Amino acid sequence: MQAFTEARGPDTPDELWVCEHPPTFTQGLAGKDDHLLAPGDIPVVQTNRGGQVTYHGPGQVVAYPLLDLKRAGYFVKEYVYRIEEAVIRTLWEYGVTGHRVAGAPGIYVRLADPAGHGVSPRDGQFDGLGKIAALGIKVSRHCTYHGVALNVAMDLEPFGRINPCGYAGLETVDLSKIGVSTSWNDAAALLAGKLQALLAP
Fold first, then answer.
1. Hey, what domains does the chain have and what are their CATH numbers?
2. Rounded to an integer, what distance in angstroms lies between the CA atom of residue 91 and that of residue 175?
3. pTM of the full predicted structure?
4. How many whole angstroms separate alpha carbon 76 and alpha carbon 83?
5. Which of 98, 102, 124, 171 pairs as cysteine with 91 (C-beta 3.0–4.6 A)?
6. 189: closest CA among 142, 154, 152, 157?
């Protein structure tokens, strides 16, 4: 991603990379070592994205939009909003309501009522919420890389070895844990379609 971004010019077409990673912890630029509680045998990779530590592994859809924001015509704040909206609309297709939490990028669901709307939580308030999608981006010369990870059907145990995204005790969930059965391929295609539609200029 970094090499692609450094090499691209004003006419380089945007790309969207969708993949699945082997078990890996990634640490963002703001990452603190004390949020790595017990990584064990899972490698920790330092990255230049924003945010703190998160986990990637099989059963998680990871999407990397490689976008020229100057050409797209909007700024970073709107870019983040559009990525989160793509996740929300993907979840909606499964009958799940995604929520934003101010000051805590990513998408959350109500554990007791995944379809419930309710009032959006206040800053840093995670009571009754589980994180289902993590967001970490990098922008260089108006061009984006890194991106978003949506948990579909994965081993969630490694999230217990870290403070996810820097929040101690924050529960992490996937679609299967909240009662949604779908394949990685279907979820990946759905999220990719929403991202392509929402990130367009």
1. 2-199 (3.30.930.10)
2. 9
3. 0.95
4. 11
5. 98
6. 152
